[in-house]
Amino acid sequence: MFYGSIVAMITPFDEYNRIDEEGIKRLVDFHINNGTNGIVPCGTTGESPTLTHEEHKKVIEITIKAAAGRIPVIAGTGSNSTEEALELTASARDMGADGVLLVIPYYNKPTQKGLYEHFKTIAEQIDIPAVVYNIPSRAGVNLLPSTLSGLAELKNIVAVKEASGNLEQMAEIMYLCGDKIALLSGDDKIILPVMSIGGKGVISVVANIIPDKMSQLFKTLEEENYKDTLEIFQKFIYPLSRTMFYETNPIPVKTAARLMGLPSGDLRLPLTAMEEENLKRLEEDLKIFGLLEE
After folding, report:
1. pLDDT tens digit string along 197-243?
2. Which SS3 state, helix, strand or coil, does residue 8 take?
3. Model confidence over 88-107: pLDDT tens digits?
4. Is residue 292 part of a domain?
5. Cβ proximity of 159 and 182 under 8 Å
6. Residue 280, pLDDT score
């Protein structure tokens, strides 16, 4: 379940800024048809902070039904409140999610003991495979490899999405945890270095717009065709990954999806439309890579 190209899927909205149910179904089919290995609804890229609890559950439910067992759905159910994370995780399990993505508690900056107890409580109370999501830049606290190694002993903690950008930290995770936990890159720009130290895949932003290239990257890796792997990475994934961060994620990727004719809709405040200069750069890049007509 936790390997290869896993897309952190955008949440499409309709013209009234409501959940676009048909849009979600179209996106799920789009990813399945292009070889994506897993879907994460309601992550950072899915604008989860602006979804109500009812909308959050609705997006997960629609995604699970649309996937219909054809591809694993790993639902974003994390929170900085342990009780809230428990409630969302239980809901996702009951709806049939294959796993959950649990972000480290943000804003309240718990200690390492607090982080351990947070994830331990969820893992022991809700029987579903869980991916711990370490993203210090957004959470304000870093989950240390020593803490993660303790969590890896729990049967439901099976993977980590590492978005610290620190390869030495990821190498330490592999050293301490071995095969007890799957290491997933949380940054498209360093997929290959992460894979070289034992990573199993990526939870990807750029896979929203080039799922075929991302799935092809992992296919060539599996075949040990490293020349083609490097070519795909250098020609498509790395440069487009830079494009996706001209502004705060998910502003560029959701804008790109809309320009390409994929279900998208507007962003919800406090996220806003791209600055004109950055929008022009985005459009130029999409044309260069054949994703937008001249």
Report:
1. 999 999 999 999 999 999 999 999 999 999 999 999 999 999 999 99
2. strand
3. 999 999 999 999 999 999 99
4. no
5. yes
6. 97
Tally of domains in the chain: 1
Can you give the residue range of the structural domain that contains 112? 4-225
**pLDDT above 70 as % of the chain:** 100
Q: Summarize pLDDT for 130-151 with one digit per residue, the tens.
A: 999 999 999 999 999 999 999 9
Q: Which residues of 120-150 are buried (b: 16+ CB within 10 A; e: fewer)?
A: bebbeebebbbbbbbbbeebebbbbbebbbb
Task: Find, among 29, 66, 44, the residue nearest to 245 by Cα.
Answer: 44
Say what the pTM is.
Answer: 0.95
Residue 159 lies inside a defined structural domain of this protein: yes
Q: What is the DSSP track for 207-224? A: GGT-HHHHHHHHHHHHTT
CATH number at residue 85: 3.20.20.70
Residue 192 region, left (φ>0) first, then alpha (ψ -120 to 50), else beta? alpha
Amino acid found at 214: M
Dihedral, CA atoms, 198, 200, 205, 211, nearest 10 degrees?
A: 130
Does residue 284 lie within any of the structural domains? no
Residues annotated as catalytic (active site), given as ranges: 133, 161
Produce one character per residue of 36-66: b if its CB has 16 or more CB atoms within 10 Å, e if not: bbbbbbbbbbbbbebbeeebbbbbbbbbbeb
DSSP codes, 94-153: HHT-SEEEEEPPPSS---HHHHHHHHHHHHHHS-S-EEEEE-HHHHSS---HHHHHHHTT
Say whether 198 sits in a helix, a strand or coil: coil
